[in-house]
Each structure stands twice: as C-alpha cells, then as structure tokens.
Amino acid sequence: MKNDELRIPIVKLNMAAGMKAMESCRHKTAYSYLKAAWSLLPDDCWGSYYDISLRLNFMMASAANSSCEYDDAELILQRILKEARCTKDKLPSYYLLSQSKCIFSCCFSVLTWPLCSLRTHHLRLSSVFQAQGKLADAYGTCSSILSQLGETVPESVTPETVGAMIPETLRMYDQVYGDDWLATKMEGITLHNVVKFYAAMASSAFFFKVSHIAAYLICKVVQLSLQNGVCQHTPLALMQLADIISLDGNNVAISQ
Hints:
- It is a single chain.
- This protein is mostly helical and 256 residues long.
- It has 2 domains: 63 residues, no CATH class; 132 residues, no CATH class.
- It is built from 14 helices and no strands.
- The chain is elongated.
- The N and C termini lie far apart (70 Å).
C-alpha cells in the first residue's frame, strides 16, 4: 500500500486498537496490532511522520516489554534513541530501557512490596538479574540521564555519608510532613524525570551495589519529594526508607 492517504488512517486505527488492547492487558495482541501499523509506514517515516513514528515505536516497545519480548523491546527503544530529535523525546525510552534491562515488568509486583518482603526474595531475584547480565547497563543509563538533567551523581558514596543523610532526611520529614505537603503535587517535567530516574537507579542498586548506595538514592528521592511535593514515586521511596531504618545489622551507619 503506497498511498499515504489510505495507509496513514489504517496505521492510526491499528494504533488505537493496540492502545485498547494494552489497556485491557492483552499485550501480545497489542504488539501484533502495533507491528502491523509499523509495517505500513514508509521507509522515511521518521522524517515524514515523525510524531506518529515516535509514538508508535514507544507503544511497540511497551507492548513488547510487557509481553516478555525483551530483546524486541530493546531493539525498538534503541531505534527511538537513534531517531528521536531531542532529549525530551528520548527520556521515556531511556527510562523504559533501564527498566527492561532489569526485567522490571516481570518483577514489578515484587519491587512494589515493602522491602521486608523484598528481602525474602532477594536471593532468588538476584540470580535472575545476574543471568540477564544487564543491571550495570540499567544503572549506568540512569546515571547518564541524570547527569544530562543537571544532577551530580557521585561515582561512590561512603556509609558515613549515608549515615548522615538519613537523619537529615528524617528531620526534613518531621518539618514538612502534614496535610499541606500531602496535598502538594510535584510540578515540572524535568523534576519528575529526575525523581523517576533516581528511583529506577535505586531499584538497580538494590541488586548489584552495596546497600548504602541504594539507601543514598532512596534518600535523594525522598528529599526531592519533601522539597517539591508528592509524585508517584514518593510512597515507595518512603516505604524503602522506613525499611532501611528498621534493618538490624545492616551496613548503613545510622546516627541515633
């Protein structure tokens, strides 16, 4: 089909069908619709239909990732990163890529449990992650993007630094927490992305870095939330922080 007046509406119909399937958690069906849509676009689609190509490819990557087609998802995301015109257009793909490298879609329900439950599964999950062999890539991707967003991510963090950072975070919490703070929503796309990538980096750090590095990253998420308002990553970060504080015999030197 070479007539754009005919095929573009069909592309959009397939995208709509794919979106509806994803909303119903029929990810394999969605992936089929979206691949069909992609096959109809012309070879120069990134130039002639940039917005459609960007949105369609990200939808494809999301559907592939949710269908456990991790290799496909990674290839699609790498294509987006190659063709996207600006950092803003690349950020969602960088984030999904970092999560795909952690097999995040398979383990999301576990990672969102309180970390007391997470510890029970740590040994089993870490062996899965090590077999995947991409946790370092995920961690490095998040670190690189945070640097591009203006954050200074230290190459190393000492237990003593985190030992001072946790009480500081708790003092901020005591000063800020209340109905007014809970009603304050974090604003600004850049700030949201910063918090999102710190949270993703912390998830990676839990499984291949020492514990105090993960604690440092969690404190960053909590502090940014306390300073700027609540976002979707705030509740989990608070749960993780509480769990770190409650651990007995951990390597983080918590000041009393």
